[in-house]
Amino acid sequence: MNEELTQLLKNFFDTSLLNRLPDKYEGDRIFSSPIIGVARGNDPIFQKYKEIIGSEHLTPFELWLSEGYKRLPSSNLRIISIVFPFNEKIRKESMNVKKCLGLTLPAEIYCIARNYANPFKKKTCEQVIEFFKVNGYRAAAAMLSDSFSIILNKKFYSTWSERHIAFASGLGTFSLHEGLITEIGCNIRLASVVTDAPLEINTRKSDNPYGNCLYYSKGTCRECEARCPANAIDENGHNKIKCNEYNHKIARKIFTRIGPILKPHNRRINWKLRPASYPVGCAFCQFGVPCMDRNPTTEI
Ligand code: SF4
Ligand code: SF4
Known about the structure:
- Helix content is 33%, strand content 15%.
- By secondary structure, it is of the alpha+beta class.
- The chain has one domain (2-286).
- The strands form five sheets. The protein has a four-stranded antiparallel beta sheet with strand order 1-2-8-3, sandwiched between helices.
- Strand 6 and strand 7 form a beta hairpin.
- The chain binds iron/sulfur cluster (2 copies).
């Protein structure tokens, strides 16, 4: 069933109109072909995430129950993490944007792609859920669930971290810029689905959470730090607050330029639905760096 699912996703990425940029940008693809990883529902790492991320972070079993499904042994659950790699053209244009004084704006094509990613990721999850239903199984996605929320208290996290789910699924490791470095790089988006279908599991090669980052594994690189216009990265890691503030500034500026073609995004903060926003991302730290489109430690 793993292969069937991979093929379904590949076809969907090839044909979905939601995976296309607007005509003004020649209607090119936003994402090239996906890869997937699969974790088992009773992997102890999901319980650990409550300590590492925050107490409100859901285990797959909790997500399952929140969707109204009946209890079952959590070992029967599978979590499929899906990697959405940005396409070549978006990367090329984004690499040419230079850091300068004042507000450095990302390439317009990336802003659109990042903004259009959300509806495409949601549709992808719906397709995967439908695939399992047709095959006689059940499935749910945090991204489509009311139990998904950003938690803003003493900490700042979400009830379902796609990066941590991808790590659990053996797809990659964390990094100085706090992205996830997979075998096809960090310039990606992620989504996931939980199901009771008996998929084969991907074993994590290592439990080292930073193994694919050159800084953490070799003490070198730090190119992401040099590229960040908000000084949100240093040797201690990534400052989420600074990064978020810079992202808001960019979003406001970009909205005045291309607001009418952006798509709205609804999110909950502390489980309260907020007015629609129009996120466009930043990601200078992911473009033109050694981990953009590969695992830079592979050849070492
Ligand atoms: S650019 Fe270098 S230091 Fe930064 S996350 Fe990538 S590999 Fe790690
Ligand atoms: S997303 Fe932008 S602001 Fe945030 S760390 Fe990366 S480059 Fe810096």
